[in-house]
Design brief:
This is Radical SAM core domain-containing protein. GO terms for molecular function: catalytic activity; iron-sulfur cluster binding; metal ion binding. With 592 residues, the protein is of the alpha/beta class.
Length: 592
């Protein structure tokens, strides 16, 4: 956007001479927003041609709203994200061992030599001095350092410094001494302090299966642990302090309608201020541990609860709803899901208790040593690193599970190995040649055809009718496709007819899909193929390829298919895996 013009009028930054804004260049806009915040600018206005529908819709998806129209231009406006927050991990130790835990970056540093209270406090003071008004204590379990927190709060009060404080805790180690100190800190301003409880379930057996407590490090027997946490929530609310309950959604573990209702009702009945539902953060390490199967999207929860949750407001980081007109419910994706371009305006400054600063949670190799004298200069250095990630990834990110873009058509190249490989052998070959995992997707498909036509004749038509369920969603989605083989290029052109003709896909709940398929039999339509896919996208420089393991439920046989949206030209991998181009329809190959 070379010709973009920026003017300032009062507390508004006005951007004009705009070309199309999209995923690849949005980082330029977020950099302007970040710079505007430093100048105490409150709003960004962007003037867009009324004919530039792509930019208009893109900006609306990213938090902009219509302000006015002047001639052939719309002005869209967004309030600048102006929270400067510091996230401080007081310890990597924890009395729980949650099976999906990323440890606030424990991979970033396996061994810590914690700084003294005075050194940590000097960092906090320097941050406050530079307008970091929001401080979060996290861990591990930060209340293993409860005495340190009490000391910090007393020092802040003595120094007449009152930033907003949040403690992210599992809630098992709440003590009256800490609550007394907090009450003294907040005085009449209860908004100054907040507890974020990591709960995950209100059923004791499920809760214990998730959190896996360290028996020697909890103040009660295992069977009474959840009740103790509930009691501590009630104790905090009795002092009129703010409590938020965090629940990481884990598919088929804590996501049933009954589970979610129990959570919502508990919060409502106990006057909990907020509930936050979060998507599971899927890292490469967690994929290797088999954790991906638990990933489910927030949209799946909202689909089930759209009648009970009333939209309240949208912020930069999350959507908020009301349950029974009172309890605030937040639906928040991992910040990394929002994309690197937005990280400049979304993320906190993350420090460990050994005074290490990690600008990017997913890139722990970039680490900066800090002290109070250099804190701000190091943050600026980290900000430049994040800017570069924004340029590289745009509205994407290194995260391994991302929302799929709805498209009208795509090109696909398919390859098959000439010899039989084990999954572990292929993964090792790709790793040895420096390929990295960049995305993961598992899904199930049910293919439907007229019962009067045999499989071979049906597939020759190149028209496909199917239902598929992504493992991160609840329910099957209808899809109409047209598949054409382009012989000259040895590629397949796949057209998604639902999107192309503007026909809205049906979505059938999983528990009702068989009833719907039985209903289709009355119209002489039958399921002729059921497939389960396990796909992983690998990338190295300009080369990318998906490794797909597909199993047919008809014969329980598994086949390996490699896929790429561009011609795969890494000759070393082609030779090592003995890949040949698949020149017949994928379904025909699978049915053999």
């Amino acid at each position: 956007m070379k010709n973009m013009k920026i003017d300032y009028k009062g507390n508004i930054a006005i951007l004009s001479n705009i070309t199309e804004i999209n995923d690849t260049n949005y980082w330029e806009i977020t950099q302007i927003e970040r710079a505007s915040v430093e100048k105490n600018i409150e709003f960004i206005n962007i003037k867009v041609s009324i004919g530039d529908k792509k930019t208009i819709f893109f900006l609306m998806e990213n938090g902009y709203t219509f302000k006015n129209r002047e001639g052939n231009f719309y002005t869209l406006e967004k309030k600048c994200q102006n929270i400067k927050s510091l996230r401080l991990s007081l310890t990597k130790d924890c009395n729980y061992k949650c099976f999906f835990c990323h440890g606030e970056g424990s991979k970033m540093t396996d061994k810590r030599e914690d700084k003294s209270r005075d050194e940590i406090y000097s960092l906090i003071k320097e941050a406050i001095k530079n307008n970091y008004t929001d401080i979060t204590f996290t861990g591990g379990e930060p209340l293993l350092r409860s005495n340190d927190i009490i000391w910090y709060l007393n020092k802040l009060s003595t120094d007449k410094l009152k930033p907003y404080i949040t403690i992210v805790t599992n809630g098992s180690l709440i003590e009256d001494k800490l609550l007394d100190t907090i009450e003294n800190y907040v005085g009449d301003n209860k908004e100054l302090f907040k507890f974020n409880f990591s709960m995950h379930s209100l059923k004791s057996d499920i809760y214990l299966g998730i959190v896996r407590p360290v028996i020697k490090a909890i103040p009660t027997d295992k069977e009474s642990l959840l009740e103790l946490v509930k009691k501590n929530i009630k104790k905090i609310k009795a002092r009129n302090l703010i409590v938020k309950l965090n629940f990481v959604l884990l598919k088929d573990v804590n996501t049933s309608k009954k589970d979610i209702k129990e959570i919502l009702d508990f919060a409502y009945e106990n006057k909990v201020d907020y509930i936050k539902f979060l998507e599971l953060l899927v890292t490469e390490d967690l994929i290797k541990q088999g954790i991906y199967k638990f990933y489910i999207t927030l949209s799946s929860l909202l689909d089930e609860w759209k009648d009970e949750l009333v939209f309240y407001k949208r912020t930069t980081r999350r959507d908020e709803y009301l349950y029974k007109g009172k309890t605030k419910v937040e639906l928040q994706q991992c910040i990394c899901m929002e994309g690197c371009a937005k990280c400049l305006i979304n993320t906190s400054v993350f420090l460990t208790s050994e005074s290490k600063y990690f600008p990017c949670f997913l890139k722990p190799e970039k680490v900066l040593e800090v002290n109070s004298a250099e804190l701000i200069s190091k943050i600026e250095e980290g900000t430049e690193y994040v800017k570069e990630l924004g340029k590289e990834y745009g509205n994407g990110s290194p995260i391994l599970v991302r929302n799929k873009e709805q498209i009208e058509e795509k090109e696909e190249y398919y390859y098959i190995p000439k010899k039989i490989f084990k999954k572990s052998e292929i993964e090792k070959i790709l790793k040895d040649f420096s390929y990295e995992i960049v995305n993961k997707r598992n899904f199930e498909e049910k293919y439907i055809k007229p019962s009067s036509i045999n499989n071979e004749d049906y597939l020759k038509k190149g028209k496909i009718y199917k239902f598929f369920e992504n493992s991160e969603e609840k329910g099957f989605i209808e899809s109409l496709q047209e598949i054409e083989y382009i012989e000259d290029n040895k590629k397949f052109l796949i057209k998604f007819l639902n999107k192309k003709i503007g026909y809205e896909n049906k979505k059938i709940p999983k528990e009702k899909i068989q009833d719907y398929l039985d209903y289709l039999k009355d119209f002489n339509l039958e399921v002729f193929l059921e497939l389960e896919w396990d796909t992983t996208l690998y990338k190295k420089g300009s080369h990318s390829i998906s490794l797909g393991f597909v199993k047919s439920k008809l014969n329980n046989k598994e086949k390996i298919i490699f896929m790429s949206n561009q011609k795969f030209e890494d000759e070393k991998i082609i030779q090592k895996l003995e890949l040949s181009v698949l020149e017949e329809a994928v379904l025909s190959y699978i049915l053999k």
